[in-house]
Task: structure prediction
Amino acid sequence: MEDRDGFIWFDGEMMPWREAKIHVLTHSLHYGMGVFEGIRAYKTDRGTAIFRLPEHTRRLFDSAHILKMLLRYDKDTLNQAICETVRANNLESAYIRPICFYGSEGMGLRADNLQVHTVVAAWQWGAYLGQEGIENGIRIRTSSYTRHHVNISMCKAKATGNYINSMLALQEALACGYDEALLLDAEGYVAEGSGENIFLVRDNVIYTPDLTSALAGITRATICTLAEEVGLKICEKRLTRDEVYIADEAFFTGTAAEVTPIRELDGRTIGNGIRGPITEHLQKLYFDVVHGRHIAHKNWLTLI
Ligand code: PMP
Result:
């Protein structure tokens, strides 16, 4: 990705994409201690708008707080940096990646002189699980890897090191011919996908696991609000994998994945094996909101 035109915001400076480099002894590269966000901006009638920017920035700062990482910039500066990065790259729609990490000032777990660096990159990124997945649904597999336990990793932090677990699960699912993994928590209950929250629908009620060992997804919160607004009942509770097998519909949510139907888990067809009507309804509402076509929720959009 590094050989291309464009600009990256690096510690307060907008620099050419190819020059935004770090040293091989970067501490976070060695020990996986960093925090990041994944944010999207969409084209709207009023121009490019970043979806739920303050919520993403807040989660980034929460993640840093959990890891006791002292960020050099405040939220306003970061919000401005994010807007500037989208503008500088002339993007109508974008995937935006802010990341904060420790530099190369020291090595070893005991290093105490590390500086925290902050970078914001943005680029054009289509449907993460494919347009075909958005329309027809994806096939997923229960992972042999367990999701983080609350006292092993900090599940409320979107921390770089947490994603070893996600990547192991995803690689396994892909190697087995599936599109994505479903991770169970340490007690065997449904947690989330490698980078998505999960929902299921049965008898017109929407279920989603509580957030004990899943990331507090901003898309998840958005879908809960939109569902309640149209009178759908949402129930947050512990779910088992066989509750997913017998669901009428299931779908993943995430900034990258947006709203992606799930048509199969572990070789069991979910519902009719196509995008279900409630999933389609919520997906449409979601795309209307992010593109500024919904009459409400304009406050979720930050025009750049
Ligand atoms: N769970 C995990 C593990 C994730 O990486 C993500 C993506 N950030 C999500 C859930 C969904 O979160 P959001 O809707 O805020 O993108």
In short: Residues 4 and 18 are 7 Å apart (CA to CA).
